[in-house]
Amino acid sequence: MQYSVPQFIEVEDKIIGPLTLKQFLYLLGGAGALFALWTIAPTIEVFLVPAIPILGIFLALAFYKVNGRPFIVFLQAAFGYVVRPKVMLWRREYIGVDVKVDTKAKAKEMDKDKVPQIGQKVTESRLRKLSTILDNEGGVDQSIYDLPDSAEVSLEDELEEDKKRQEREQRVDELLGKR
């Protein structure tokens, strides 16, 4: 079975004669504004002074295109340009971190790992632990990055991994300061 491919999807449908719905509504709004001005104005001269710019604006909204785009898009961009600030400044926010608390926490973690004292024999496993501590600045336990050996992971394992990931993110935020 063949399907027809729609063409001219960028062209708006002509609803009322040669006008699209938007064009018709803009012209209807302009006519309403001019009628309201006609009823308020005491003389024809008082009516014509504001009527000509109002008529021009509504005709431009209905028919004029700037670089192939509707005039309303141009007006929105012009208004945004006038309202927004012209100079952008980046102001870095410094977040104070209590150094005493962080150093105490690192010292406690180092005590847990039992880093060898100077002059003691350094074995390969102790050297690995020491390099892990130095690489991570004493902050993150590398064992939580280990993946399970089996390819099948149960829902409980996924929840546990998710919880560990959240704990890692909280720990990193604590070490680096809130972003």
Fold blueprint:
Blueprint (H helix, E strand, L loop, with lengths): L13 E3 L2 E2 H20 L3 H20 L1 E2 L2 E2 H13 L15 H15 L10 H12 L19 H22 L3
Antiparallel strand pairs: 1-2, 3-4
Helix pairs in contact: 1-2
Biggest pleated sheet: 2 strands, antiparallel
Query: Can you tell me the number of structural domains?
Result: 3
End-to-end separation? 57 Å
Residue windows where pLDDT falls under 50 for at least 5 positions = none
pLDDT averaged residue by residue: 78
Number of strands: 4
Shape: elongated
- List the strand order in the largest sheet: 1-2
Question: Which structural traits does this protein have?
Answer:
two-stranded antiparallel ribbon, 3 domains, two-stranded antiparallel sheet, mainly alpha, 179 residues, single chain
Briefly, what is this?
It contains six helices and four strands.
How would you describe this structure to a colleague?
The protein is mainly alpha-helical. The chain has three domains: 14-83; 98-139, no CATH class; 148-179. 57% of the residues lie in helices and 5% in strands. The protein is built from six helices and four strands, in the order E-E-H-H-E-E-H-H-H-H. The chain has helices spanning 21-40, 44-63, 71-83, 99-113, 124-135, 155-176, and strands at 14-16, 19-20, 65-66, 69-70. The strands form two sheets. The chain has a two-stranded antiparallel sheet. The protein is elongated, with a radius of gyration of 35 Å. The two termini are 57 Å apart. The mean pLDDT is 78.
